[in-house]
Design a protein that fits this description.
Elements: E1 3-7, H1 11-26, E2 31-35, H2 39-42, H3 56-66, E3 72-76, E4 88-93, E5 101-104, E6 114-116, H4 120-129, E7 134-136, H5 142-150, E8 156-160, H6 161-166, E9 173-176, E10 190-195, H7 198-204, H8 210-226, E11 234-239, E12 242-248, E13 255-261, H9 265-295
Parallel strand pairs: 1-2, 1-3, 6-7, 6-8
Antiparallel strand pairs: 3-10, 4-10, 5-8, 5-9, 11-12, 12-13
Length: about 300
């Protein structure tokens, strides 16, 4: 059956949608790619949490599925909020690409002083592990961020390594270990969302990667227990049942970290409950500080 696949219009989003379309073609399905504009693509120059957080990239595509303009949408899995509208199904999670962050720079790492990123997690981790650096806000797609780096607005910027790989970009810099710079939940993973209709879900079923689905479900279970949203600097990473979770202060000086092997989603839920209890003060502090900044 022919299917209409929705995507954002950035080069990275299109590359992800084209990967899904190619896999579908290999399974005998004829896809059509439809570009949908989101608020996150049109509002630049402000922190992501000020315009609705990670869900801003998903909402317009959800609406397009539900009102019948498209049949499915391709997302970076980390952008999909925990709470989802009725009538939708995450029908496929592709095999995970690199979960790591990548520090892009052309000068020696020891000379880096100004780093660009909008992520509160990345900011806290960079300040914690790279002495003497300051972190400035950086919004925009991958090309925009690389252009700003080349113009000298920053000494370095942080991008997801998976995004660079999907775009076929070779850049100078340093891979940041996910065991130390613990990534956002589901980073490096592409997901397909469709209407919750059995025939449509079956079209995408061959694209689903079982181990990746288990890992990202564990990460999302921990994320749901911890809460905090995009206000709280937090990293959660699962690999074949080994879970790492951390919550940091906004300035990176304090951190709560847990690491354990888990065998089920219930174990992951318990892991998340302990992590939240231990990091409760940091979560509350981050929320209050960013709320005051927004109101000010």
């Amino acid at each position: 059956m022919p299917v209409r696949i929705g995507t954002r219009g950035s080069r990275l989003a299109l590359a992800q949608a084209e990967r899904v379309a190619s896999l579908l073609q290999g399974c005998g399905t004829a896809p059509e790619i439809v570009v949908i504009t989101t608020k996150g693509d049109t509002v630049d120059g402000v922190p992501l949490h000020e315009i609705g957080g990670q869900g801003v990239f998903v909402r317009a595509l959800d609406d397009a599925i539900l009102d019948g303009r498209i049949d499915a949408a391709v997302h970076s899995m980390k952008d999909i909020p925990a709470k989802r509208p009725a009538g939708l199904c995450t029908c496929a999670i592709l095999k995970r690409d690199s979960p790591a962050d990548f520090l892009v720079h052309t000068i020696p790492r020891k000379e880096i002083r100004v780093i660009g990123t909008t992520s509160t997690r990345r900011r806290a981790q960079l300040i914690r592990y790279m002495e003497g650096v300051s972190v400035k806000q950086l919004r925009g797609n991958v090309d925009t961020r690389l252009r700003k780096l080349a113009e000298g607005q920053y000494d370095a910027i942080v991008l997801a390594e998976a995004g660079l790989e999907r775009l076929g970009l070779s850049v100078s810099g340093t891979r940041l270990s996910p065991q130390r710079f613990v990534p956002s939940p589901n980073q490096g993973t592409i997901a397909v969302v469709c209407r919750d209709e059995a025939p449509l879900c079956e079209v995408f079923a061959p694209l689903d990667h079982e181990q990746t689905r288990i890992d990202v479900q564990m990460e999302r279970t921990v994320m749901e227990e911890v809460g905090g949203g995009c206000f709280t600097p937090q990293g959660i990473y699962a690999h074949h049942g080994h879970l790492i979770g951390e919550i940091l202060s906004l300035d990176g000086t304090r951190r709560i970290r847990r690491e354990d092997d888990v065998g089920s989603l219930e174990d992951a839920r318990t892991f998340g409950q302990y992590l939240r209890k231990e990091g409760e003060e940091l979560i509350r502090e981050a929320y209050e500080k960013l709320r005051i900044c927004d109101e000010g």
